[in-house]
Amino acid sequence: MLSRAARSTSRTLVPALGSLASRQKHSLPDLPYDYGALEPHINAQIMQLHHSKHHATYVNNLNAIEEKYLEALEKGDITTQVALQPGLKFNGGGHINHSIFWTNLSPKGGGEPKGELLEAIKRDFGSFDKFKEKLTTVSIGVQGSGWGWLGFSKEQGRLQIAACFNQDPLQGTTGLIPLLGIDVWEHAYYLQYKNVRPDYLKAIWNVINWENVTERYMACKK
């Protein structure tokens, strides 16, 4: 009975997965700036390793796991599908998170946002300084590896701060739409800041690309 149900499920899913079978593989996005462009706040060695090694690994692993997952779907192999899901979450989240992170940074960044985003921050956190302090505190407080996020709740129409562990994607695990992510995995800062995460958090505010964060905020309000 179970095997017939699995085959039935597979027959239902496979036609809808035609586009997945012929999909283009995920690729490592180019950075919109040189590896050394964020110095002295984040040095070139960190950026090169972070982008060309760590992010690239998430992309390669995601492509490999998706191929295995598709094979399992076609075979109706639910056990393998379940076994692959943690890898999909980790590597898919790593690809999603870093693709946002690179655009959240800019050599022309820093300062404060303007317009509607700044007004929303003041409304939801009291002031920009209070928001900055809260996101910094949440990011420093992540135990082990993870991310600090500014997200938008469509349900409540408000900005929220959240922490995600490992490479858990913000929207996929909390429902919040990601606007600004701060990577607090040690590979994001250790070569420059050693184990002093607060110094890295202090520095990263100098390269936050508020134009990009604002674009994301305006887009999710539509």
From TrEMBL:
Signal peptide: none annotated. GO terms for cellular component: mitochondrial matrix. Keywords: Manganese, Metal-binding, Mitochondrion, Nitration, Oxidoreductase. Its EC number is 1.15.1.1. It catalyses: 2 superoxide + 2 H(+) = H2O2 + O2. Mn(2+) binds at H50, H98, D183, H187. It is found in: Mitochondrion matrix. Its cofactor is Mn(2+). GO terms for molecular function: manganese ion binding; superoxide dismutase activity. Pfam families: Sod_Fe_C, Sod_Fe_N. Gene3D superfamilies: Fe,Mn superoxide dismutase (SOD) domain (1.10.287.990), Iron/manganese superoxide dismutase, C-terminal domain (3.55.40.20). The keyword Lipoprotein does not apply. Residues 113-216 form the Manganese/iron superoxide dismutase C-terminal domain. Its main location: mitochondrion. Residues 25-106 form the Manganese/iron superoxide dismutase N-terminal domain. PANTHER family: SUPEROXIDE DISMUTASE 2 (PTHR11404), SUPEROXIDE DISMUTASE [MN], MITOCHONDRIAL (PTHR11404:SF6). Homotetramer. Belongs to the iron/manganese superoxide dismutase family. This is Superoxide dismutase. The lineage of its organism: Eukaryota, Metazoa, Chordata, Craniata, Vertebrata.
